[in-house]
Write a structure and sequence with these properties.
Bound molecules: glutamic acid
Low-confidence stretches: none
CATH architecture of the largest domain: 3-Layer(aba) Sandwich
Distance between the termini: 15 Å
CATH superfamily of the largest domain: DD-peptidase/beta-lactamase superfamily
Number of helices: 15
Strand content: 5-15%
Helix content: 40-55%
Structural class: alpha+beta
Largest sheet: 5 strands, antiparallel
Length: 321
């Protein structure tokens, strides 16, 4: 991977080229199991980069607010890791890929109730249940504050997304009760599932998402606000989780092809983090069958290759050779 931040013109060109090249890709479909998401305009397409020195670059529909969905799991993981430390969290939730879909009940059964990773629904709800709080509202406010500190602005709940998801989240409620039956749900299951549903319904823009990722790229310091959001020691653990489970059951293919820790959400958002350099974000609602944004994956793959960001690529060795 390149060790330095590419110059502004190079980043701007890569973003613009990717936007032009992939904006007309018509593959994939909006998520429809959450009714709100089925109706988000499929043509929306935004790309952004935030660098570790706090510069933001954008192309396309980067100011449209969309539902963060599963990408929020990275930030609930960060909050609980800060509160209880990485080892306690790992003992309770785990740090391995499940190899199964994000809402799998089978994965829970196969591992005696241990969710394995905070980046699938079961693990995210178990993680939310561990947030230190006296009430569900306090738990929710802490999660919203954490996401806002990553984004560098006050984020809010998209009420329409929340209503749509809360009225249809029966599968997640079942997962919450299943964890409870195994002793791996640490607060009231239904209240926890509701807080988790709220965290998934936070509205973010593509530009917000790039800055959230850049806070991880900058070892836990938000490069735009210059405020420390999390302990730098926790960042590698979070990036490792993203590598293993960030793109659902395509996480291995993503590591193979792109070589960057990432996280996607069924709202159409996708984030990739190049540690020490920058973060790339995208928003485009149509998803592949696994749940990843089709245009988003293509665009980020293009930008990452153009900027030589693959973490497994030794850029110095390439130059010498
Ligand atoms: N709120 C969604 C769910 O729980 C998030 C899924 C996702 O983005 O992967 O099903």
């Amino acid at each position: 991977m390149t060790a330095t931040v590419p110059d502004a013109a190079t980043i701007r060109n890569a973003l613009q080229e990717a936007h032009t090249q992939f904006k007309d890709v018509a593959d994939g479909q909006n998520a429809s199991y959450i009714p709100y998401l089925a109706n988000v305009p499929s043509s929306l397409f935004g790309l952004a980069v935030t660098t570790v020195d706090g510069k933001i670059f954008e192309a396309g529909d980067t100011r449209y607010e969309f539902a963060i969905e599963s990408i929020s799991k990275v930030f609930s993981l960060a909050l609980v890791m800060e509160e209880m430390g990485p080892e306690d969290l790992r003992a309770k939730v785990g740090a391995d890929p499940t190899g199964l879909p994000f809402n799998s009940v089978v994965a829970i059964e196969l591992h005696n109730g241990k969710p394995l990773t905070p980046l699938v629904n079961a693990g995210a709800m178990a993680t939310v249940s561990l947030v230190k709080a006296a009430t569900p509202n306090e738990r929710w406010q802490k999660l919203l504050t954490m996401c806002s500190r990553f984004a560098g602005r006050q984020l809010s709940l998209n009420q329409e997304v929340y209503k749509s998801e809360a009225a249809s989240n029966f599968h997640n409620r079942a997962i919450a009760w299943l964890l409870y039956s195994y002793g791996t749900m640490y607060s009231d299951p239904i209240e926890t599932c509701d807080v988790y549903t709220k965290q998934c319904s936070i509205g973010i823009t593509t530009a917000d998402l790039a800055t959230m990722g850049a806070t991880l790229a900058a070892d836990g310091l938000n490069p735009v606000t210059r405020s420390r959001v999390l302990n730098s020691d926790n960042v590698p653990h979070i990036l490792a989780e993203m590598t293993m489970e960030g793109l659902y059951t395509s996480s291995g293919d993503w590591a193979y092809e792109v070589g960057l820790p990432g996280k996607s959400g069924v709202g159409g958002g996708l984030l990739a983090v190049a540690p020490g350099v920058l973060a790339i974000s995208s928003f485009s609602p149509p998803l592949d069958p696994v749940g990843n944004s089709v245009r988003g994956m293509q665009a980020i793959k293009y930008i990452a290759a153009k900027l030589k960001l693959n973490v497994y690529l030794n850029e110095a060795a390439c130059v010498v050779a």
